[in-house]
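User: Before I run my own analysis I want an independent prediction to cross-check against. Here's the chain; please return only the structure tokens and, at the end, one sentence I can use as a sanity check.
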Amino acid sequence: MQWVLHHSDSEDEVEFVVERDGIETELTLDLPEGWKQAGDISWRVSTWNLRRMVTGGLVLKTAEDSVRRQNRVDPDSMAIVVEYVGQYGQHAAGKNAGFQKGDLIVAFDGRKDLLRETDLISYALRELAGEERVSVTIMRDGREMELELPLQR
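Assistant: Structure tokens:
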């Protein structure tokens, strides 16, 4: 099923047959426009390598409302917390660039509309291919800071 969905268009119908209690039933799955971008890839094993490429080994989580309020971040703006900082090899690029656990990312390449780790990774892979570095605005201890994150292949 995953292979079929991966190769489906952004707006498509997928027909398939399921068997329940020995009875075959034909079903149709309507895939709305944009369904591929609506999913969350953070749970996938393959995301670990994408994090190396895009976040320098940082694991990111969407900030809770209390963190947004504490840092005066608008509810519709980017607020992504650094949950984990990779320590070794290419996964330490974020650490070496100055990122720390607990940093709040509020802009990535000037964008403030990337609301999830999945959105940030997707944007970087689509729009920043070939770039060497990306500017990241963070909040740390109530202060706004700019860091440069290396992008890796």
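Sanity check: The two ends are 29 Å apart (CA to CA).
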